[in-house]
Give the backbone structure.
Amino acid sequence: MTEKEKEIQILQKHMQDLAEKSYQQNIYTFTGFLGESGQEAYFAVREKINYVAASFSGGNEICERKILRFGSLEQLGYEEPFPISLIRIEPFLQKFSDTFSHRDFLGALMNIGIERTTLGDIFLKENTGYVFCLEAMAPFIIEGLERVKHTPVKCSLMQEQIQLEKEEPEKQQITVSSARIDALISKIYNMSRIQSLELFRTRCVQVNGHVCENNSSVLKVNDVVAVRGYGKFTYDGILHETRKGKQAVGIRIFLPKK
């Protein structure tokens, strides 16, 4: 068993404990923020704990990292919101600021001791970061984060809603020998077939939010493929066949956040 598989098993046991606690104590229980693999871990054990209602939220409908909540108004008789805060991180002086990326904000937060499970999605708008985090961590971030790269920053708790937008995918046309998922991944991310096979072996490939271990799968139109560490893309289907018998396919690719 790999370390990743052990981590998944521990997470699934934690989810089952939270579900049982919600059921026995008549309270809401919450995980930390989960990425795609963490959310997939829940769906793998959902049948074992379906006696408790469960729902996801990342703080905004377009967020990808989400908290799992056990309990519902119908089951518990009261409502409790997800413990999520939104923090704005902005330079004191934009004129003299470094140019930031998503990775800069994440790195700065990790450097002050923030664990990844306490952080949700990070959005970048006009060189200002908007970070979803666990409510309990908000005061620590506001007080503790003073600098991103070489730029002094100020943090504030967002009280009002802000319009956040998903990054638009880049439309591309690629030519492959077949529309198998491993062939597409190899072409899109410029890797050998052996490298792409390793991604399937280590459960790093998801299709529509579910782990895909069959590297010979043929995608359907609008399938969303996420490759851990590389990014994700949407498959738009075969456009035409080339003169050499290969297939030209359309994709919409999301580049990894930098």
Notes: The chain has a mean pLDDT of 91. The helical segments are 3-25, 36-45, 73-76, 102-111, 138-144, 181-188, 193-201.
